[in-house]
Amino acid sequence: MGAGVRARSRLVADVGTTTVSLALLDRAGRVVRRRELPNPQQCTGADVLSRIAAERAARSAGLVDVLRRVADEWGADPRQEVVAVANTVMAHFLLGKSPSGLGYHPYRSRLSRRRVLRAVRAGLRLVMPPLLGRFVGSDCCAAILASGIHRSRRLALLVDAGTNGEVALGDRNGILVCSTAAGPAFEGATLECGSLAGPGAVRSVSISDGRIQVHVGGRRQPESICGSGVLDAVAAGLKFGKIDRSGRVAGGRLQLAPRVWLSQADIREVQLAVGAVGAAVRLLLRSRGADTKDIRQVVVTGRFGAALNIESAVAVGLLPETTASVRQHGNLALRGAVMVAREPELMAEAEALAGKCREVMLSGRQDFESVFVEQMEFRRWR
């Protein structure tokens, strides 16, 4: 608005690898403004490892400046702390620390884990819930807080299949967490005809009268396809035999509309993402000594997670086939950050739950590669 300072208003931010999600709370704690903006570091690479490799360029991309501009435009009270959540690499950039130590073994962070973090950057007083591990950030901590799985009596699974995917498995007695390189396929933007969800983007795909039908946002002709549509399209292609379990596409591409298709390269990118998330779930279950039948609740979050068709996710092997109840949320990380901004005493609860979390380093496991390759196959699993 740019109409002056709103007394006691607070900015809240979820800084993702691809997207920065922002909200403004008024003095009563109500969300009065929302906005999503692209992470300006995208020009230096699509994932966190490429950001580390191009650290100097990523630093100069102006990540903190995005928060500063929005805070000024919305008139956020500069006396109030900005509650921010992020994965560990974005947290380093946001809080002014070099993430270089996370780029090679033994993957050392320059930020403390399991405690609240604070910094002043570009005139903003930033406060961040605890990081949960070397590659599991405060965004996962906030999502767990918002989901309530840390209070659950029964085993729960939380999946955020964003570019830097994070998975949590546990209950009130303890939670295993891990990061998995899902990549940007589920965001849609890196595919040949891909885009973020918006007018003209295929958001879902169904089968009717023996034919594949696309459903488009904005009442326009199909011009692109976003993440939720991609998963539906692959599931439909599998059902029709146009895509086999190995990911091979008949004719080299799956045509969905005159100007929208999935190429063989697109399908391979989706396979890598499905394999990464599926392997993370399986290996956390293995680490816990549990099976899919033990899961009583599944929580799926993120821009992609809120829109995906659960049946399609199970059909391609992204999620296990289970009798557990399933909840979908748009952005639990941002919701958790908003909760902390409204009730600062929840930061102590966030620290307590962080103490119950144990990070599982997937790449350090001898069985990771075999499980990952197995999970890349499009098939149901339990």
From TrEMBL:
Q: Which Pfam families match?
A: RACo_C_ter, Raco_middle
Identify the residues that the record assigns to the RACo C-terminal domain, covering every copy: 155-378
- Superkingdom of origin: Bacteria
Q: Where is the RACo-like middle region domain?
A: 12-151
Protein's name according to its UniProt entry = DUF4445 domain-containing protein
Q: Which organism is it from?
A: candidate division WOR-3 bacterium
